[in-house]
Amino acid sequence: MSFRNGKIYLSWSKPTDNGGFPILYYNVYRSVGSANNYFLYDFSYSKSYIDENVDIGKSYYYKVTAVNKIGESNASESVNMIPTAIPIAPTNLKATISQGIILTWDEPNSNGGSEIIYYRIYRSTVKDSEIYSIVGTSENTTFIDTNIEIGKTYYYMVTAVNDAGESGASDILSVQLVTPPAKPSNVVALASEDLVTLAWLANSEFHSPAEYFEVYRAVNDSTEFVKIADTNSTYFIDNDVVVNTTYSYYIVAVNSYGKSEASDVVSVTVGQATISIPIDDNPVEEGFDYPAALNSEVILGTAAIFTIIGVLGAAFWIFKNVVLMK
Fold this sequence. Notes:
Blueprint: E1 2-4, E2 7-11, E3 25-32, E4 39-44, E5 48-51, E6 60-67, E7 79-81, E8 91-98, E9 100-106, E10 118-124, E11 133-138, E12 142-145, E13 153-162, E14 165-166, E15 173-176, E16 185-191, E17 196-201, E18 212-219, E19 226-231, E20 235-238, E21 246-255, E22 258-259, E23 266-269, E24 275-278, E25 310-312, E26 316-319
Antiparallel strand pairs: 1-2, 2-5, 3-4, 3-6, 6-7, 8-9, 9-12, 10-11, 10-13, 13-14, 13-15, 16-17, 17-20, 18-19, 18-21, 21-22, 21-23, 24-26, 25-26
């Protein structure tokens, strides 16, 4: 028994015993609203019947008998069904870009009389395409598409599915995957006696890359940050500093589509002997002599003693109490 295209489809098996005579036809009995009002509704020469006279939301009950030339059999067990319609299409399809393309939509204004089972999400990379592929399903009104490439434009539509079938599609939503840059991370500030060296990581996953970075600074206890530089690099040397003064910094990434969120704030006091040096992947231990011949960028101009205090990404080691040689 099923409901499709506004019709109830019945089917059954022939009796195990025909009473010694061939089955001539089958009587179909129907009751509407309850199982207490059966009447002879129609007949069928085959082991199936299609009831086209049904209304959405009403309850229909059926029994079947077999008839041979001797007479009519007892009735079968009853079956019942409440016809449902396919849902109306989902509405208000929207997208945001974060760790992928995050799609959201509103439930259909009508579920067709049957609960929504799930939603199908369709996608194309061609505008006005007649061919959309299913990229996933969702049991709620949210879906995250992570199989994407920066720079492409994607076209989405969503349908709702219930027991009766699949709704029409929502309006098509186009999502151009060009975004402001991601927030810079792993910001480190390193101070010597007369400068501060800043370094950070540029993040581009699910975001368009940065074209340059803005460096903002506040002095001592001030909460007023002022932009002090633009740079195309992921490091910056601030030599406009005063000994025994604390400086706070944050970084903003910029491209043609806008600016990122500000990075976390880092603070450092000038006069503390710390340094950041780009080196090879070779491990460095305390007491290691680091000659300039290794293509290092020794920020302090004279030999000093530092100790290793951490690692910045894959390109920087941070030292303190290590002998640095010019």
